[in-house]
Design goal:
The protein contains 21 helices and 19 strands. By secondary structure, it is an alpha/beta fold. The strands form eight sheets. It has a four-stranded mixed β-sheet with strand order 9-12-8-13. Strand 5 and strand 6 form a beta hairpin. Helix 11 packs across helix 12 and helix 20 runs antiparallel to helix 21.
């Protein structure tokens, strides 16, 4: 088992695939997506009473989390407690979701799935799209157009699904009466989802489904500790000092380089050092300014181009083995989806140590920022039905959202002890051969449509768990959230991916010396005219009145 978001079965490729469709060119983790609709629903969405939050206390973490976003940490798998008293299903339930893993065998050939259904008390049948090409949006559109809807359909925040508000009103059940305020307490595992997660599922002043939490943190630079120790550690007092360290670590003759060649991700890190906003900045007059329009963004592009010219990036931009190179010490640093992502490197080199870079001031004067992530991967609405069916579906999602440390969590993620997994000498779960075949694809699909709050869990590496928690606390000191998170722009859903790619391509050309920095202004003008300005208007109409001003 891996830590944090990987509990939900997300691959790095899969997570970035979700995030990349609504991001700025500054970084793939700063997603914006589905929430309060822009044309008339903003006031209603701002006033909706979110579900009452009641923290899950069935198990005690070794490191406590907090309301600011710090994730709870566990050193060992706790003794599982039961969170659901009776099986949720009375019959058959159907759903549409996606998997980020290799597809599991179907229900009739999958004992893991069959055993889960026996615990659920009925038949959970899923249509599962694979994370390839336009798989999920195309599948979603086809199913939606058929008018033969499954009982549940996962709605991602950033995969280009348009007209979310009208679609929900026409096809799906308003769940506000079942979930708003104390009503949610009938479903304790849903009540344990934090208020920020629920904002994603609010459209036109109504709650449409349970959200699927992901790590609240955004991208970070992760570095090979031994390599950076050669130059005084993975940190700097300025951007120039960081570049000098990177140049010292880069020795092409020895096939050693400081940084992976993911230029947009590197730019995201650099713009944080320059104090740029997380996608959108709220101005004093409550208007919005996009990252692309700021001087800080242009300064970040210029500096990233300077790093490229210094030769500190690994030269093959299409390399697929960068993670292994960071683990073995031939590349010193790579941008990862969040501070939890140490475990996957440990798997490649259990004796290595890895550091998480805390943003620093580019010039020793400007205050750096740290971009928090979107925090969820969407929500799962139900098609319109009578009350008994709706309550059955809510009971099912309550079961599937059971927190880490529960019997239901283990059943959903690992199955039956002795059949699908065993417990190793350290007390941690390890999949059997059949579990490895039957579980991962289905587990990913289940966690895409329902998930608890995430935790830090690195079994066998307690020091990593402590370190990640400590670094999360430091990141939170500089944390800034995208103010449009939890709001919806139909223009972004329709053209956001296209116009972002156009600008991003130009930025990469500038960074790599194929274009001049002066061309950035025209690229931004094009981005604005082809959808950016309209996106701004839609986000402003839905702007949370409590969103803080970026620079007071």
């Amino acid at each position: 088992m891996t830590s944090t978001t990987s509990q939900a079965g997300f691959s790095r490729r899969g997570f970035l695939g979700l995030a990349g469709l609504a991001v700025t060119a500054a970084g793939l983790s700063a997603c914006g997506g589905g929430g309060a609709a822009s044309n008339g629903g903003a006031a209603a969405s701002a006033s909706v009473k979110l579900p009452t939050y009641k923290e899950f206390t069935g198990v005690t973490p070794d490191i406590a989390g907090n309301a600011k976003g710090l994730q709870a940490g566990y050193f060992k798998l706790p003794t599982a407690v039961q969170s659901v008293k009776t099986p949720p299903l009375k019959g058959k339930v159907t759903g549409l979701t996606e998997t980020f893993e290799t597809m599991s065998p179907g229900l009739t050939d999958n004992p893991f799935w069959q055993r889960l259904n026996s615990k659920l008390g009925g038949d959970l049948e899923l249509q599962i799209a694979e994370d390839i090409g336009d798989g999920y949006p195309a599948k979603f559109a086809t199913v939606l157009a058929s008018n033969d809807l499954p009982d549940m359909m996962w709605v991602p925040p950033n995969q280009g699904i348009p007209n979310v508000g009208p679609m929900l009103e026409a096809k799906f059940q308003d769940l506000t009466p079942y979930l708003s305020g104390d009503a949610v307490l009938e479903y304790p595992n849903l009540a344990a989802l934090k208020p920020d997660s629920w904002k994603t599922a609010v459209v036109n002043g109504k709650i449409w489904g349970a959200p699927i939490p992901s790590t609240p943190f955004g991208q970070v630079y992760l570095g090979n500790h031994e390599m950076w120790a050669q130059v005084g550690g993975f940190g700097a007092a300025s951007a120039e000092e960081f570049l000098e360290k990177a140049k010292e670590l880069t020795r092409p003759g020895d096939q050693k380089y400081a940084l992976e060649p993911a230029y947009i991700n590197a730019l995201h890190m650099v713009t944080e050092w320059f104090g740029a906003p997380n996608s959108w900045a709220v101005n004093k007059d409550r208007t919005l300014t996009h990252l692309y329009e700021t001087d800080e963004y242009m300064a970040g592009v210029e500096f990233t181009a300077k790093m490229f010219a210094a030769g500190v990036f690994y030269p093959d931009s299409k390399a697929t083995d960068i993670r292994s190179r960071v683990a073995n010490g031939s590349v010193a640093a790579q941008v990862v989806v969040g501070p939890h992502d140490i475990r996957s490197y440990r798997a490649l080199n259990k004796d290595a140590r890895f550091d998480i870079l805390i943003p620093f001031s580019a010039d020793g004067k400007v205050k750096p920022v740290y971009d928090m992530g979107y925090g969820t991967v969407g929500f799962t609405p139900f098609k319109k039905a009578e009350e008994g069916k709706i309550r059955e579906l809510l009971a099912l999602i309550n079961y599937l959202s059971a927190p880490f440390g529960t019997v239901e969590y283990m059943q959903k993620n690992f199955g039956e002890l002795g059949q699908d997994y065993t417990i190793d000498a350290a007390g941690n779960p390890a999949r059997t051969e059949t579990g490895t075949t039957n579980a991962p694809g289905l587990v990913s699909a289940l966690n895409i449509m329902s998930s608890p709050e995430n935790v830090i869990f690195n079994p066998g590496f307690d020091d990593d768990t402590r370190y990640v928690s400590q670094q999360e606390e430091k990141l939170l000191e500089f944390a800034w959230r995208n103010p449009t998170n939890g709001s919806y722009s139909d223009t972004n859903a329709k053209v956001g991916a296209k116009i972002t790619k156009q600008l991003r391509d130009k930025v990469v050309d500038i960074i790599t010396g194929r274009a001049k920095i002066d061309e950035l202004k025209d690229a931004v003008k094009r981005w604005k005219s082809e959808g950016g300005d309209k996106m701004r208007d839609e986000y402003q109409a839905a702007l949370d009145p409590n969103a803080p001003v970026f620079r007071s």
